[in-house]
Amino acid sequence: MKLITHLKTIKRLGRLRKEENDDFRIYLRELPFSIKTIDQAVKTTSDAVSKRIDCTLCANCCRKLNPTLTVTDTRRLARHLGMTVNAFTARYLKKIQQDKKKLLIFQKRPCPFLKNNCCSIYEFRPHDCRSYPHLTRRGFVFRIRQAVEMVDVCPIVFNTYETLKNTLARRIRPAAFACFAIFSSHVLFSAMMG
Ligand code: SF4
Ligand code: SF4
């Protein structure tokens, strides 16, 4: 499958297909597959897509999103930069409230540590940055809304979601149960991504 990595195209298509993506989000939650099976399918697809996308040519997440920082992230970064935690926090971070939780994020976007399209603190970057785009975490069906919101920002999310739509909605739907064995063994995904 041909991947789309042009950021303006992804932004345009992500917005254009918002309704379709929302419909698929609901459909995916209703599929007769276990959470583990869906997670494995998403992981297989996402891994195959990630291998074909060069994040150093993109860095869109570092420009458009706000990673959250844990206390451990803050300590590690302050130490790396030779600053006290208080000085680091005052200079780079701000507190926000989200879903009744207090979170620490960078004060500015793009991220102040993005230099020449690369992370200048790569070895010390926050955990949230390390695990982005979070597609391989457990319980994808419970986080699909979050993924759909990232479709017009991240080429990995966009192409993973498009592949899932193509493989599941267009091929499996007519005979969902009959295809279960194929789906579970990932043969279909391997064939799509190969
Ligand atoms: S810390 Fe690094 S990886 Fe995280 S947003 Fe900033 S530049 Fe990107
Ligand atoms: S994770 Fe997504 S948005 Fe971030 S650099 Fe890689 S492809 Fe781009």
Q: Which sheet architecture does the biggest sheet show? A: 3 strands, antiparallel
Placed side by side, the strands forming the largest sheet appear as 1-3-2
Bound small-molecule species: iron/sulfur cluster
Strand content: 5-15%
Instruction: State the end-to-end distance.
Output: 8 Å
State the share of residues found in helices, binned by percent: 40-55%
Brief summary of the model shown:
The protein has 194 residues and is mainly alpha-helical. The protein has eleven helices and five strands, in the order H-H-H-H-E-H-H-E-E-E-E-H-H-H-H-H.
Structure explained in plain terms:
54% of the residues lie in helices and 9% in strands. The protein is mainly α. Strands 1-3-2 form a 3-stranded antiparallel sheet. The protein has a two-stranded antiparallel sheet with strand order 4-5. The longest helix has 18 residues, at 155-172. It has 11 helices and 5 strands; from the N terminus they run ααααβααββββααααα. It folds into 2 domains: 7-58 and 134-193, no CATH class; 66-131, no CATH class. The structure holds iron/sulfur cluster (2 copies).
